[in-house]
Amino acid sequence: MRHFLTLRDFTPDELREMIDLAIKIKAQTKAGEFVPYLKNQTLAMIFEKSSTRTRVSFETGIYQLGGTGLFLSSRDIQLGRGEPMKDTARVISRMVDMVMIRTFEQSKLEEFARYSRVPVINGLTDSYHPVQLMTDYLTMLEFGKSDPVVAYVGDGNNMAHSWLYLAAIMGFELRLATPKGYECDPAIVLEAERLAEKYGGKLILGYDPVGAVQDADVVTTDTWVSMGQEEEKEKRIKDFAGFMVDKKLMSHAKPDAIFLHCLPAYRGYEVSEEVFEAHAEEIFTEAENRLHAQKGIMVWLDEHRSDGHMKSEE
User: Fold this and answer.
1) Closest C-alpha to 127, from 164, 98, 100, 174
2) Which of 126, 217, 222, 302 is flagged as catalytic?
3) Among 41, 64, 132, 294, the one annotated catalytic
4) 155, 175, 236, 262: which one is catalytic?
5) In contact, 179 and 210? CB cutoff 8 Å
6) Is 129 a catalytic residue?
7) Is 251 exposed, middle or buried (0-12, 13-18, 19+ CB in 10 A)?
8) Contact 33, 65 (CB under 8 A)
9) Residue 290 a catalytic site member
10) Catalytic pick from 236, 290, 292, 305?
11) 262 is catalytic
């Protein structure tokens, strides 16, 4: 059974196949052609962390593919009352065709996938956000950045971890700058470096935002205060001084550089209002592309199932 838990589980060719599907399905959608690739299928969407873009994009996506989405918060199912994740997996996966989970610990997602009879998609964990990185890759391609130098400035969080894997596997250069004390998980860095050696990516990790952004094709960041870190807000704001992507920092990138942000964005913290609005077209194309990238992922997983389920229509 193929699941979509982290990018490291796939080869460059497999990730490109998903992106090619996303491009194809997006073009069909824009032309008003809704091909029922997942006709009569049901996607269970389990949310232990709330989200605007994740819910809307997955629910709309499965609907446009001919299926139905079920929104399940932890308050709505027995997980909220202490049922083991493996039991929830064994129940739900007998009733639906695919599951998306947005949760905290990566280990919970992996346990669910281990006991699931159907494909499981990582909608976000504290360690990784792979659907967002597929979205960002699709967006970079649409803006002509097929072999980019990418600068990530900010927290060494789930987004940074996923950028490391994407750059390593797809073979482009990533410069990642974090404040001291907010570095990426060393084990994830080691795994990304192993993948980069295998596939040709170039990973540069440091603490200098200006050096990271110098002549970059793509500049990206993420919120400094992620969900569950609210009590650290004041300390983080002080620790991240100098890491805001503002006009001065963006001036070090290439003149035609694009700026990406997975949203929500907190202007005046990780990005200035001026930079955000100057690059709004890129940012909101990126937001829309969550819908299309995830449709590509879902259709690819359906085409590669090994549970005897009927494959998606050609």
Assistant:
1) 164
2) 222
3) 132
4) 262
5) no
6) yes
7) exposed
8) no
9) yes
10) 290
11) yes
Does 102 qualify as catalytic in the annotation? yes
Give the position of tokens 């650290």: 232
pLDDT tens over the chain, length 314 residues: 899 999 999 999 999 999 999 999 999 999 999 999 999 999 999 999 889 999 999 999 999 999 999 999 877 787 756 788 899 999 999 999 999 999 999 999 999 999 999 999 999 999 999 999 999 999 999 999 999 999 999 999 999 999 999 999 999 999 999 999 999 999 999 999 999 999 999 999 999 999 999 999 999 999 998 766 677 888 999 999 999 999 999 999 999 999 999 999 999 999 999 999 999 999 999 999 999 999 999 999 999 987 545 454 44
The candidate with the shortest Cα–Cα distance to 207, out of 243, 164, 260, is 243
The answer to whether 211 and 218 have CB atoms below 8 angstroms apart is: no
Question: In the numeric block, which tokens belong to residue 7?
Answer: 């990018």
User: In sequence order, which residues have a C-beta less than 8 Å from that of residue 234 and are 6 or more positions away?
Assistant: none
Question: Which amino acid is located at 197 in the chain?
Answer: E
The CA angle 116-192-264, to the nearest 5 degrees, is: 70
Active-site annotation holder among 3, 8, 53, 102:
102
CA angle 186, 148, 195 (to 5 degrees): 35
Q: DSSP letter string over 108-137?
A: HHHHHHHH-SS-EEEEE-SS--HHHHHHHH
